[in-house]
Amino acid sequence: MKNLTKVISLLLCAVMLFALAACNKNDTPTDNKPDKTAYNLVQNGVSEYKIVLSATATANELFAANELANFLNLATGAEIDIVTDEEYSSSDAIISIGNTRQAQAANAVSGQNLATSSFVLKTVGNSLYVTADKNGDGEACLYGVYQILQDAVNFRVYAADEIGYDTDNDTIPLYNYDKVYKPTFDQRELGYASIANDETYKKRMRLVWHDTDVRWTLHGHTQASHFVNPDFSDTLHPEHEGMTYGQAHPDWFDGGQLCWSAGAEMERVAAEKLIWYIENYPQGEYIMLGQMDNTDYCSCDRCKAKMTQLGINPAGMQILLLNNVIKIAEQWRAENRPEQDVKYVTFAYNGTLQPPVKKDGNGNLVAINDQVKPHDKLYIYFTPIETDFAVDLSNQRNLSVMEALNGWNALASGRIMVYIYDINFHNYFINFNNFGTVEGMYRDYLDNGVYYMYSQGPIDTCVPCFQEMRVFVESQLMWDIGQGYDNLVNEFMQAYYRDAAPAVRKFYELIRNRYARYYAVDDTSLGGGIYDSIGDSDIWTENLVNALGDALDDALSAVEKYKTTDNELYAKLHDRIMKEYLSVIFLKLSYYQASYTSAQIAEMKANFKYYTTYFQITNYAENDSLEGLFD
User: Fold this and answer.
1) 0.90 cut: is pTM over it?
2) Which of 294, 264, 273, 532 lies closest to 423, judged by CA?
3) I want to staple 453 with a disulfide (CB 3.0 to 4.6 A). Which of 185, 513, 554, 614 is the partner?
């Protein structure tokens, strides 16, 4: 029998009760489930189970318990109470979340040193236990609950306002779990405004966001802003009273960056600030000492001489400095905060992308010398901004990126984090052409030991260009890369656009096919870089733009029937299609106004203004506001 799925539309808030929308078929895979036990979590719409939390449960564990109770109720009608292990001591017919007394008594707490997102599901008798690293914040227990819901009711989050789950069964079996679950990438980030501004959506997509994650004490370009800022007062010498570091030590700075050969005095200043961050942020796990966001690095005579003397490159110079700073900070931490595990992070970015490596006699990549081996606590945030995202990493266009990745993996195996991109920063209304390469790039990074994956989209505004689909597909691949990019696209289209899915899929394929032909025939020099000129009328010809509009017109026609039978569903589907239509309107107003009457142009402008406001789209490019664009 085919599954019936009820899909709910949510307001973007953290409440636990939701309004139901229409039913829809859910085609998510249901295999790979454990065997069933003789017990049922829900029997004929009633459950005898209780969800048990520790009396000291974390916020994530509490959220997990509410998610489990809420969605089982929505799917089956069963109400399941949430209790603490202090008020409820029985181990009979419970779903235990976290390090509860019952979990300890049942020996269900894993003795393994689990990674941040890994969790254990274990069935003991008629009870189910969800546990993770006891030193974690419950994040992985939440992921465990989503696994239970996926197995129980085919739970699937497509977007903040589109959640699918089965509703055709009022009896849910207890599965016989005994497994450690590990995602493809242990930690996963997508830099989209929609994720960053919605805590509930972020959690349901099993993502983190560094600005709100307490584990990130500092993130980004911090060396000359947070550690040794030229505008900070110099407190080192009485004779420099009233002077800044920039005034007292101009040789510490060059080109907006620190001078990485400035010496012990500057290193001590940076180390003391680093110690301050360790001391004042006890929950912090990551502290970033990232170079500033420009393509320069110090080119003073002292740096040039040092690079020549050691035969190293700018990345090697940065490591020399950071190794010394971290050594000082680690000595303090070992004496004062031995329980606090700190990971120090720096960029491999722009001028420091290429690692300081050479080949040994056996052809293996090794550090040029011992001095530029990264400290054991130094993590590399590999940020290849020059990547051509339209082709695989194995393509000749990305040869330097792949070579750099291999080199850093040789120097810091197991300590590689990746920061890549999911947008063209000059064209927020034009689809970024990485549809066919995301999965392959993820696999290449995984093969090089990457455990932390961050892909930056448009963080300054919501956008069209399949924003919701990209978040769904990419977050799912980061969690389980075996699902496959195209399979996930098809699944999303059907769930999100319903009757309009074939027409929206045609719109999507027209875009992909145009890029494929243009790159192969019309302009082989144009790539998939984040600043490439992908918004030109040579690419988006008038005939093509009209064909894109026709496809979305067909999509609108496909949902027109709901206008009289289910107006709420009609409005939802209509608006989702119109969000993608913004790209077509943008191109028509940008290049082809001469083909339209003044009345048609006015209508397009009115629709553009209405839907960009409705969807909170404020920019058409990075730091470029829509205000007055088509006035």
Assistant:
1) yes
2) 532
3) 185
